[in-house]
Amino acid sequence: MARYASGKKAWGYSDRSGFRYRLSEMMTEWNGSKVGPDEFEPKHEQLEPISPGPDPQALYDPRPENNLQPVTVRFPTFNTVTLQPIPIPRAVARAGTLTTTGATPGGASISLTLAGVAGTGAVGTLSTNIVTLAATYTITVSNTLYGNKFHQDGSGPGAAGRDVNEGSTYRYDQSHSSNSGHPLRFSTTSDGTHGGGVEYTTGVTTVGTPGTAGAYTQITVAIGAPTLYTYCTNHSGMGYKVNTL
Fold it and tell me: Around Cβ 21, how many Cβ atoms within 10 Å?
């Protein structure tokens, strides 16, 4: 049977540094590299982590607290126009009716009615007409620059018109005295009924008499609404284009 030579005078070259060492003095590391005795590095303990074993199981035969009380979950009511949640008055519902009124920062009126159910505290009915305004425009009638026309926030929109966003609500405030006798309405035809068109009423509400306090025309722009035009129901040539975006 063949035998290896003793190699007493043999030399070897380190797999790490390439330095020459006596082959008989060289040492083999854990990764199979053969190196000089001054280069030898033992295997680091982090390369052989201790297995933590499986996670412990649940407690055996536990005795949890069993006096749990029923939980009442109340879901919010949403405004169908703005898709915003309607706040519920923080009060304990009892027999009878709770009614509250007020106004939003934009001037929209609020009317809430909460009817309680005796003994349960459950919410009965909740009705509201809360409207969130995207903008309120001050409408005046002026002969400046553009002749006797509607001016929005002090300027005449001209041929470019003014932009509004679909799904939003806008109020055209006609409380200024110059609006007297000039009701503002909308149409899909330039100059409205004076141009052979008809009044556009989708999402439109009117309040008060133009030229008096609190008078306005309000529109919630429908999704997919066409280009609109404001016009005066009494006089032609006063309106302007409203671009729906």
Answer: 19
CA atoms of 163 and 227, how far apart (whole Å): 10
Number of domains in the chain: 2
The answer to whether 154 touches 145, Cβ cutoff 8 Å, is no
98 lies in some domain: yes
Domain check: are 97 and 162 in the same one?
A: no
Phi, psi of 204 (to 5 degrees): -100, 135
Asked whether residue 125 is domain-assigned, the answer is yes
- Cα–Cα distance between 172 and 206 in angstroms, integer? 9
pLDDT tens digits, 85-122:
777 655 444 444 444 444 444 444 444 454 444 444 44
Which residues constitute the domain of residue 218?
135-244
Q: Is residue 233 packed enough to be buried (19+ CB in 10 Å), middle (13-18) or exposed (0-12)?
A: middle
Same domain, 159 and 209: yes
- pLDDT tens, 196-218? 999 999 999 999 999 999 999 99
The pairing of strands 162-164 and 96-103 is unpaired
The model's pTM is 0.49
Name the percent of the chain lying above pLDDT 90: 46
Statement to judge: residues 155 and 121 lie in one domain: no
